[in-house]
Design a protein that fits this description.
Blueprint (H helix, E strand, L loop, with lengths): L8 H15 L6 H12 L5 H16 L8 H15 L17 H7 L4 H14 L4 E6 L2 E6 L6 E4 L5 E3 L1 H12 L13 H17 L5 H13 L5 H14 L3 H16 L3 H16 L3
Antiparallel strand pairs: 1-2, 2-3, 3-4
Helix pairs in contact: 1-2, 1-9, 2-8, 3-6, 8-9, 9-10, 10-11, 11-12
Length: 284
């Protein structure tokens, strides 16, 4: 099945504006940002579809028991509803699908990457009043419930399975070869979550050069966030514009990037200027 196609340019520009405004709000809404990113990647998602996805999150929250207890009780209640009753979980095959990184599609399919399933868990739990947050373990995103001294971790990719301390250590060791450190268990900032989602989309597109359209919207949304690895992203964006045949625009972005780099690395700046010149020459 072909992955979703982005919307027409006018709609795409509108979505980027809305995404940037939400990202700069005093309290950015994670679900809204993820859904706007989904709309930027799937032209079939209109504003009615955006509203329907928010309504579905509200509906699921309404199915949870009223304040079931402490952090572990909340984790078990979410696992019972979302993992067992509703069938939200992931598998290795989900890493091959762009839809696994689009929140509205994850809500429809009940399948997705760990971070998108965690967004479902967080947004449903938050609406129900749970003390919930994301935990960005290296290589695997999970959710946490409760304060640090009572923290309970759950893995939505595994249907919400509650993790023991050794489970978390095993996940980190598998990803890094190193130990679990206390700093890895801190709540993830919503904007960092969104950037990580977009990084996953860029990784999907990087393995599929024919889908440079996907890489383009993922980079443009990443650049709209208040905090991002600007230098690396702008260079990647400029290269992508050239690859897609926008030679003048790509050359201009390369030259702008070269000016920034020149302050720290003259030789790198000169290489980028040569790339800009080569892009302009392709118009002749």
């Amino acid at each position: 099945m072909r992955a979703p196609l982005p919307p027409e340019p006018e709609r795409a520009a509108e979505l980027r504006r809305r995404f940037a405004a939400e990202a700069r709000a005093e309290r950015p809404d994670l679900a809204t940002l993820c859904l706007l990113a989904g709309a930027a990647g799937d032209g079939a998602l209109d504003d009615a579809g955006l509203d329907a996805a928010q309504i579905e999150l509200d509906r699921l929250a309404g199915l949870l028991p009223y304040r079931p207890g402490g952090p572990r009780a909340w984790a078990l209640a979410l696992a019972g509803l979302l993992g067992e009753r509703c069938g939200f979980r992931g598998s290795a095959a989900d890493y091959q699908r762009l839809e696994s990184s689009l929140l509205h599609r994850v809500l429809e399919r009940r399948r997705g990457l760990p971070i998108l399933l965690s967004v479902v868990w967080m947004e449903v739990a938050r609406r129900a009043g749970a003390p919930v947050y994301g935990v960005a373990l290296p290589g695997h995103f999970v959710v946490g419930f409760g304060p640090a001294e009572e923290q309970v971790l759950a893995d939505p990719f595994d249907g919400g399975r509650v993790l023991s301390g050794s489970d978390a250590e095993t996940l980190v060791a598998g990803a890094t070869g190193g130990p679990l450190e206390p700093g890895m268990l801190r709540p993830a900032d919503p904007l960092d979550v969104v950037l990580r989602v977009l990084n996953n989309v860029r990784a999907w597109a990087a393995a599929r050069p024919e889908r440079s359209d996907v890489a383009l919207w993922a980079i443009e949304l990443s650049l709209a966030l208040p905090s991002h690895p600007a230098r690396r992203l702008r260079y990647e964006w400029a290269q992508l514009l050239v690859l897609r045949g926008e030679f003048l625009r790509g050359a201009a972005e390369l030259e702008a990037y070269a000016e920034v780099v020149a302050g720290v690395d003259d030789s790198a700046a000169e290489r980028v200027r040569r790339q800009a010149g080569a892009a302009r020459a392709r118009l002749n």
